[in-house]
Each structure stands twice: as structure tokens, then as C-alpha cells.
Amino acid sequence: MQFKHPEILYFLAFLLIPILVHLFQLQRFVKVPFTNVAFLQKLVLQTRKSSRIKKWLILATRLLLLTALILAFAQPYFSNHKANEEQHFFMYLDNSLSTNAIGEKGNLLQIATQEIIENSTEKTKYSLLTNDHFYANKTISELKEELLKTTNTAKNRNLADVFLKMTSEHKSVTSPTKNIVISDFQNIKKEAISNAPENTSFVKLVPEQKSNISVDSVFVDDNGGSNFIVHIIVKNQGNAKNDIPIAIYNNDKLLNKQTFSIEENKTTEVTFSVVKTPVFLGKVAINFNDTYGFDNSFYFTINANEKINVLVIGESNDFLQRIYTKEEFNFTSSTLQNANYNLIDEQHLIVLNELENIPETLLNSLENYTKKGGNLVIIPNKESVLSSYNNFFRKLNSGRLLSKKNDSLKVTSINYNHPLLKNVFEKKVANFQYPFVKTSFNSEFKNASNIVSFENKQGFIKQINLPNASMYWVAAPLQKDNSNFTNSPLIVPVFYNIGKQSLQLSELYYTIDKQNTIDIDKQLGKDEVLSIVTNKDSFIPLQQTFQNKTRITTKDQPLVAGFYQIQQENNVLRNVAFNYDKNESILDFLTFSEANDMTISTSVKNTLENINDENKIQWLWKWFLGLAIVSLLLEILILKFFKP
């Protein structure tokens, strides 16, 4: 039992006063002579005994009365916290796209929001964390205002980050805290919630439907004719489905539609043939009622063909020209003597192919070129002068060549995790015909990573990260009398991807809430910026200007799937499309059996009611006031009916 005003209990000390009065109050008896002394003696003893019992009863009732009144004014209660102590609830409300589904009572997010509002209490402070906002120490009225503005978002939060935020907030709050996690627990494993802070309750939002169909991806084939072939990969989760309508649009114009069938828990491919246009804003739409509606549409763009400028300076080598074809690259090759230095600043990639020396003029031009973001590939010559190369590397502050090695070495190791080779190979190749080199150069570079390595673990092709660009070092000449690497299947993906990554041409589509990099083949002025625009909104993305391009990086925006334009003032430079993350479409949820050691409910209302009941204060002052009244009545009855 606790007291709201415990200081009043000091008045219990005054109970000593009636006790002392009772003990020291001595009643004097007057002696009266009487003839029958024995009879009187017996009568006096009986009278004194009855009077003493009555006084003790009156004292007890008065002490009980005063004690009950003092305790009543001290306001006793039963609770697991102090009455004047403010409670604090930390709530995480998952408002990801997957919570925009229909549950037993209706829309999952809307019902959860409504039940939070209806079951919140006035004497509690709330901190609300959603996927896109955080509201700290809000009253119930402030909380309601923020909840009414909460909508589904494409942003996601990792549960580990949620728990970290909870722990961090607890350090700044002195009052008792209760944590509530409200989510559908999509793509969550048991291990993810095992590190939850103490006093955490989980509420699982359960969608009613158990099947979903979604557009997983799109790719386009160009066979050189007048049409594109659009391949659409559709994913089914649930029972087999038949005669599902699907349509393709160019912006808002319907081009074609058809129906398809799909087996249980399988994927299928649907193709459309569309007429080529300089700019194509493609939209694929499936008309089907399932768990999620946001993944029934898919956007992609085909822009006018852009090409990457590649300049080769040095020895002629046919393998580079075969890789950098005219369909995708503007390929230029010249000898060192005939090199046009005025073309350097226009290039996205420059290849120094087997130069013996790097002239000072070229060295200065390349130094300026890399500072402005130009990428560089260096292939040495068997007779390369180390001092000349080291002079160049010293200017770039990138490292140095150590020595020339004339021993034959095999190329045996591929770095499958390197960004240049990511998603190139379907599986790791353990046994392949190893290329070899006869002459190579030992090197020591800063900020370098191996793409392909020799059998002695030394890098054969390295990527060296410069402040604004990338430099690729090939440790051996690629002439056929020194190496057969040009006949290896590795030659094409390595050099092709080096070229493609020198200018990040627009993809068919990008994924929202992921880091995306887009290069615009345009140099901006000092005060010029690029904007990403829709018909409803616009924003200025993170951007970096180089000599021959402007690089845009998107992460936090945009958050709505659809078409966007990259503009310089009112000039449209590029059309891009953004789609939602496909992980939001997966019907994979944490089940109760996987987390049977956790407190999990499927009702926000029940969870909040239970927590409120645990924190509810049971006041006892009325009972003590009633006891005081009963004590007073007992005293009256004793005085009236008890006759000594």
C-alpha cells in the first residue's frame, strides 16, 4: 500500500493524546456508610469493572476513528507505481507499405491508429516512432494530432534500430517506461526481437488475405527492329490464378493488354511488343484484388540512347574496340604521338594502353582529368619505365610500382563481391582455364581492392579509389606474346563494366528507399542545380559536378512510385522511374510459435487496456472514510446502550 500524501501520517502521533488522557484520568469515588457492607463491596467491584470496559471500548472506537480519518486524508492506494509519478510509453508504429492491407477489422494501419487514440490516457506521456518520423514526449492530445497525420510510407526501419532508439530514449526519461511495438513483422525472424528492451509488448497486425500477386521486374530486348520486346516477370504467392488481366501503357496511353495464368507460388513471364519511341514511359498494371495493391503497378523508362566516351591512348589492341561497341560507346583510339589532348576533358574513360613512358604534358592533363572525376585504366608495357609511371602515381597520391617480375604467373582468383563483378556470374567458378602472364609488375597502391588476382594473391587487376574518380591498374601487358588474358571469358565483363560504370546511365527503373546513382552527361555552372520533378512535387537531390558529368544520388526521396524528370530549370534532361522495394510484397511474417517466449497480441486495444490495468491506481481512502463512520456509529451505540 502506498500513500499520495504520506506526510499526513505524522498526525498518527497525536493518537497518544487520548491514550494518555485515558490512562491518567482517575475517577474519584465517594464513600457512603451503609449497614450491609458485604453487599456494597460486591456492588462497587461490579460497577468499576463495567465502567472500565466501557471506557476501553470508547477509547478503541475513537482511536479507530482518528486513525481511519488520518489514513483517508493520506489517500492510500494500491499500484505498481507512485500516484504522482508520470508514466511514459514508447510506441513504435510500423507504417510501411505492407501495413496498408485489410485485416479482420479493416485497414491495418488505420485500425491500429484508431485504437491507440481510443485507449490512451491523460496522465501518460508518449513517444511515437514511425518509419518516417519520431515524436518525443507528447501528451495525449498531441499524440492524437500526430497519429491522424500518419500514413503509409515506402521507408523502412530495422527492428534493431527501433530497439536502439528505445534504449537511447530511456536514458533521458526518469519516469517508468513501457515499450510497445506494433507491426506486421514482415520478413522478421525470431532473432530480431530477442534483443528487445525489458517491458516490451508486441502487437502483430495480421492481414486477412493470404495470397498476393506482384510485378517483380521488367527488362527490355532491342533486336534492332522497329519494336522493343518488354519482358515482365510476375510473382504469385498463394493458390494458382487464371485469366489475370495485365496491360502496358506509354505514360497514360494504353498500348496493349492481355490475360495470363500463373501456378501456385510460382513466377511467370509476360511479354509485350511495343513500337520504339525516342522516350518511352512504360507502366505495367495488373487488375487483381489481393493482399497488396501497391505492387500491381510497375514503372520503367527508356530514354534516347546515350553513349559513353572512351579514349584509348597507346598501342592498338582490337580487344578494346570489340568490347566498346558503337551501340553503347563513342570509342576513340590514337597513338601517343597523335593524341589530341583537347579530347581528354570530354571523355568518361581513358585507357593508357602499354605506354613505355608517360610524357609530362599528358601526365598533367590526366592529373587534371582525374581531379574532375574522369576514370582511368592503365595497362603497362613490358618496357615501361618505372620512374615515369611512379612520377604519375605520385602526382595522384595513389601509390607506386615496386619492380618488374619476369616469372610466369597464373590468374586464379576472382573477387565475386567486387561491385564491378556483382551479379555478373550466376555461380562461383572453381575450375576454369587459368589465364597466365609472363611479365608483370609488383605494385603498392593506396585505397586499392583486387578485382582479379594472381595465384600468389597479388592483384592482377586493381581498382584504386581516387578522391573524385577511380583508377584501374592492370599488372601485366595484355599483348598476346605476354598473356592470353584477352582470350579469357573474364576480359569482357571486367572491361565492359569498367566502361559502363564510368558514366551511370539511367536504368530502366530505380528502387525507392535505396541509394541510387545517376550520371547526367552535362556540366553545370557554379550556381546551377538539377531538380527531380513530378507534376505534384519537386526536390533537389544530392549532386556532385565533374568536368564531363553531374552525378545525382537519391536515398530519402522520392517515396512514391512513378515517373520523374531530372530538370535543369525547365529543361528536361532525363526521365526516370521509381518503384517500391519488392521485399514489401513478400508474405513472410513472424509467427507466434517462433516467439512463444514473447508477449505478443493481435489487438492494439487489448494490449493498451492490459497495460492501463496494470498501471491503474486502486484508491482506498473511501474505505477508510467508511471505517471512520462505522467507528463513530459504534461509539454512539456504546454510549447509548452500554450501561455499567
Short description:
By secondary structure, the chain is an alpha/beta fold. 24% of the residues lie in helices and 32% in strands.
General description of the model:
The protein contains twelve helices and 35 strands. The two termini are 40 Å apart. The chain has a nine-stranded mixed sheet with strand order 16-15-17-18-25-24-23-20-21, covered by helices on one side. Helix content is 24%, strand content 32%. It has 644 residues and is an alpha/beta fold.
Termini distance? 40 Å
Principal-axis shape:
elongated
Oligomer: single chain
Task: Report strand %.
Answer: 25-35%
Notable features of this structure?
644 residues; alpha/beta; 9-stranded mixed β-sheet; 6-stranded mixed β-sheet; elongated
Topology:
Layout: E1 2-3, H1 16-24, H2 37-73, E2 76-78, E3 87-93, H3 108-118, E4 124-129, E5 134-138, H4 140-148, H5 159-171, E6 177-183, H6 190-193, E7 200-204, E8 212-222, E9 227-237, E10 241-250, E11 253-262, E12 267-275, E13 280-286, E14 297-302, E15 308-314, H7 318-323, E16 329-334, E17 349-355, H8 360-371, E18 375-380, H9 386-396, E19 399-405, E20 409-414, E21 436-437, E22 440-445, E23 448-454, E24 459-465, E25 470-474, H10 491-500, E26 510-511, E27 516-520, E28 531-533, E29 538-539, E30 542-545, E31 550-554, E32 562-568, E33 571-579, E34 600-601, H11 604-614, E35 618-619, H12 621-641
Parallel strand pairs: 3-4, 3-6, 6-7, 7-34, 15-16, 15-17, 17-18, 18-25, 26-33
Antiparallel strand pairs: 1-2, 2-35, 4-5, 8-9, 9-12, 10-11, 10-13, 13-14, 19-22, 20-21, 20-23, 23-24, 24-25, 27-31, 28-29, 28-32, 30-31, 32-33
Helix pairs in contact: 2-12, 3-4
